[in-house]
Amino acid sequence: LDRRTVFFLSDRTGITVDVFGNSLLSQFDELEFHRVYIPYIDSEEKLADAIERIEEAAEEEHHPPLVFSTLVNSGLRKQLRHANCHVYDLFDTFMHAMEMDLKTRAARAVGRTHGIRNLAEYERRVDSMNFTLNYDDGAKLRDLGQAEVILIGVSRSGKTPTCLYLSLQYGIYAANYPLTPDDLDHKGLPAVLLPHRERMVGLTILPERLYRVRQARRPDSQYASLETCRREVRQAEELYQRTGVPMINSSSLSIEEIATEILHKMHLRRHNL
Amino acid sequence: LDRRTVFFLSDRTGITVDVFGNSLLSQFDELEFHRVYIPYIDSEEKLADAIERIEEAAEEEHHPPLVFSTLVNSGLRKQLRHANCHVYDLFDTFMHAMEMDLKTRAARAVGRTHGIRNLAEYERRVDSMNFTLNYDDGAKLRDLGQAEVILIGVSRSGKTPTCLYLSLQYGIYAANYPLTPDDLDHKGLPAVLLPHRERMVGLTILPERLYRVRQARRPDSQYASLETCRREVRQAEELYQRTGVPMINSSSLSIEEIATEILHKMHLRRHNL
């Protein structure tokens, strides 16, 4: 495999340049990339340090490295253009066209994307996270009326990470309820959930995947046996079908994919923008 | 304020196009944007539906709307170009230059960016989240040796959301320890933390901001009084200084900014890429 160094330069957190660069790199799977993240480049000195590292990489690899940049300061961007590298710059590329299309001048201010833009929205995000933590694993069951979505599923089917992602990323009040073997044998929705059916999503998972996850947690237990995993998954899926709860199979999905599919399916409004 | 509709089109989760489009829009603060997210556009029919909504918006606003796109399928992208809108397309824009620079053809495959690329890395992320939940608010204190970073700070200074973000986004094992009034009066680091000083970060916050957060939680309590907030913050900052624990002021920072500053300050390796 051919190995190339890729730099991610930004003046603040580097979250935008991370997503920007990696979404493009993901299309080149025949190469191996060595990723170097350099955030908080907010002065000529810091850029000079970064350029030194870029030049070193160019010399070592006998290739100009790739450089993704979201530097807002146009003076810094100009300096970067003289370095021995291929620059892909988000602002250089799109800002001018957007100014023309919107007939407005861009602010060119640093730290706009992932800073606090709106305190109320920000607080909502922390509130929804606290809500999610309080309603994790059915801990508190009164007041589920506040939940925008309630994930149900057997133990270790991915409810908690998905709920936390929904609250942290999108400010969604997400509760979760674990379907216990008793719930599953009872064959109906637990009474406490009945009033909330239209806000519920059922997670399911391949029994083999569940087995692996449970084995790592409680090896050789009844709980982690393949037989138990198979039975619980089958019972849960039957329950979703019988009660009309929409189902998402988390086996081959990332947390982000499960979360966005829930947003989409349940027509939830994201609160962070 | 002039209002413009902006569409975010993607073939999968829409996370990339969200970050891509909003980082650019954040530079145009004199306009008001109405954002429409349309993920999972994976067929000509779904794109035709999206184009219909775009054309309707163009007619209503007497302006062609802005359209950010991360559609990988070039047939769909071609179709989009005939709609009455300004298209900013991540792949159209950069893919060809990258192919030239890397001397390789891009895969042009859908769902690469936020899917599960590597199961081991994915499991680490869930593991680190479980670790973080277990070590929230100093709940379990044995085995802090496993923590890559330990956030300390007074109650409600932002430890929990930051830890959860670090684990969910970057797969970092992040523990947190709340400094109680007793800890603060004692004027030294709690004994349980002493072996881990080089992995600790102290969060601080403006007393007025802390007051607001605590009032929302327990109005008119001693805990939430401005006097208590001022004293605890002062004592915590003195403790950080005395013990050489690096300090981050969370008052004007978003969760993302606090998290990335910690990564940067503590030279932590992110695990999700």
What does this protein look like?
The structure is a homodimer of 273-residue chains. Chain A has 273 residues and is α/β, with parallel strands linked by helices. The first copy, chain A, is 45% helix and 15% strand. Chain A contains 10 helices and 8 strands. In chain A, the strands form 2 sheets. Chain A has a 4-stranded parallel sheet with strand order 2-1-3-4, with helices on both faces. In chain A, helix 6 packs across helix 10. Chain A is elongated and about 70 Å long. The two termini of chain A are 40 Å apart. The interface between A and B is large, with 75 and 76 residues.
| Overall pLDDT level of chain A | 89
Helical stretch count of chain A?
10
* Secondary-structure content class of chain A: alpha/beta
Q: What low-confidence regions of chain A span 5 or more consecutive residues with pLDDT below 50?
A: none
Give the H and E element order of chain A.
EHEHEHEHHEHEHEHHEH
In terms of quaternary structure, what is this? homodimer
| Major sheet characteristics of chain A | 4 strands, parallel
The radius of gyration of chain A is 24 Å
What is the distance, rounded to the nearest whole angstrom, between the alpha carbons of the first and last residues of chain A? Answer: 40 Å
Strand line-up of the largest beta sheet of chain A:
2-1-3-4
